[in-house]
Design goal:
The structure is a homodimer. By secondary structure, the first copy, chain A, is an alpha+beta fold. Helices cover 41% and strands 25% of the residues of chain A. Chain A has 7 helices and 12 strands. The first copy, chain A, has helices at 6-13, 17-25, 45-59, 64-73, 77-119, 148-159, 220-233; strands at 4-5, 33-34, 41-43, 127-131, 134-138, 141-143, 168-171, 181-188, 199-203, 206-214, 237-248, 262-270. In chain A, a hairpin with a 6-residue loop joins strand 2 (33-34) and strand 3 (41-43). Chain A starts with a strand and ends with a strand. Chains A and B meet through helix 3 and helix 5 of A and helix 3 and helix 5 of B. Chain B binds a DNA duplex through helix 2.
Chain lengths: 271, 271
DNA sequence: GCTAAGGCCTCCAGTAAGGGGAGAGTCAAG
DNA sequence: CTTGACTCTCCCCTTACTGGAGGCCTTAGC
């Protein structure tokens, strides 16, 4: 039987010399002959066959340990079936994981891209427009506005992949309240879902007045004032709750700079 | 400003103590205060904020190096956009890779599962049946039958994901030839594809006689003999080339045991 | 006979993101 | 003063190798 030096065998098998030495150490591929004196490794045809199997399994992404196990237990593709099924499930899990991340990335990217285009309108004018009805899931609560973070996180966890669109807050108070405000963080949904502790329903559409507010939430007062004045002038009767749509707020990752926040304030008009 | 011990901060941030120490070393998250004497780490609110960002980025699968870079360059989700896009492409590549492997796994699994059910029929009887036309890609060659391996590997590389069904060989010789046999390894295709060096065409369907052969290829002689006798008895006129469908041959991974090979020999009948 | 070039060997260090544990110092309560 | 909880540093382990240093052996060229 012809023998090949490690260099020759490397070229034949497509494995590097380093890798071959490593596989020898791991008992994954033991050379047919190791010269006593020099320690030189010599490989033969059967080594090559085994090397091909190893390469094939490696390309399927098996760990070396698994390959070792497979080589020990299997002599035929049929015997590998169980391992293949297992590996397939592993891969499908990995794909699912990555798919989920991509979805999250997409939603962040979309939000930021929208916000960017919104930012170009620097002057904020009051607009009259018509809102479409919208399906949302919300958590109504009493307390400080700044406590809404928890609610949004909870919405994120419970509704996850069903969310679609910008988060918003419904404000039920007629006057400004610091400590015991009555409000409802909510997110638009792509489809009807049930989730514990979350009220899912359709918000009515209709004619509304809207104002885009640039800057921190503490400054909402002035923008609300402008909206109310505008409504009074035209004798519009406004419908509770008002809506605050977070075009750009604290990001999913960074808190960002409140001066750069963009929020659209909306009031439906009673007709 | 309140300070927290590493244990408290660990509970607050959801990062293990080990991880916090590691991030300190990597300068990813430097405690607000390190006591000179004891070396105790003390964290503050701003550390917590940074920790939240790190966790968020880590959940998106960013490497710590990238996180470090992002933290250095970005102060806002908008700044991260480029990184997010990049990460998304990475993920999509990873998904594609895994999808490809899953497809390969599926084809191996399918082949072996089919072979297994075929194996249960132990007696091989000559059958008359009707073949549907089938789209194939093939590489016609002259030489030894045993040289077909290269051709199949080439078909695998060039047609990859378009293949669907069991590989087969078309034999154009009227008599047995050792050295200069004329044959064509080919694979069924799901759709019309073009590939250099590969002839893609539809094999005609029609009535045929078929015999399932169990065992090594060297024993084909007897099975062919049985088919030819059967045809002569019934005065069937057979059409060249004959087809050898590899129900179970050398696996994609293991060469397997030739005694377990299963091949279906088919001859179309001239009508 | 000497040197240079390959080819081969072993051993060590490093990768990413920490986990596990040893041995020693620190802190607060009983 | 002791005990138990907490913290520190340092080292080794993981995967599947890669890179490099230093050394042995053979052959070709001068």
């Amino acid at each position: 039987m012809t023998l090949y030096s490690i260099g020759e065998f490397s070229r034949m098998s497509g494995l590097t010399v380093k890798t071959l030495r490593f596989y020898h150490e791991k008992q994954l591929l033991t050379p047919a002959l190791v010269e006593q004196e020099t320690g030189y490794r010599n490989y033969d045809k059967s080594n090559l066959e085994r090397a091909h199997i190893i390469v094939a399994l490696r390309e399927l992404g098996f760990a070396l340990d698994s390959i070792l196990e497979i080589l020990a237990e299997c002599g035929d593709d049929a015997d590998v079936l169980i391992f293949l099924e297992e590996r397939k499930h592993q891969l499908q899990d990995e794909i699912r994981e990555r798919d989920d991340i991509v979805r999250v990335l997409d939603s962040i990217i979309e939000t930021e891209t929208n916000a960017r285009s919104e930012m170009t309108k620097t002057i904020s004018e009051i607009e009259e427009k018509v809102l479409a009805p919208i399906l949302v899931g919300g958590i109504r609560m009493t307390g400080r506005y700044s406590d809404c973070g928890k609610a949004f996180r909870q919405l994120g966890r419970k509704l996850g992949r069903h969310m679609g669109g910008k988060a918003m807050m419904l404000c039920y108070d007629d006057e400004y309240r610091e400590e015991d405000a009555d409000f409802e963080p909510c997110v638009p949904l792509k489809r009807e879902v049930q989730a514990e502790g979350v009220e899912v329903r359709e918000l009515p559409g209709g004619k509304c007045i809207s104002l885009v507010h640039f800057g921190p939430y503490e400054d909402f007062g002035r923008s609300y004032h402008r909206l109310l004045d505008y409504a009074k002038e035209r004798e519009f009767s406004l419908v509770n709750p008002s809506r605050e749509v977070f075009i750009k707020g604290p990001g999913m990752i960074f808190k960002g700079n409140p001066k750069k926040y963009v929020t659209e304030l909306q009031f439906l008009i009673k007709t």
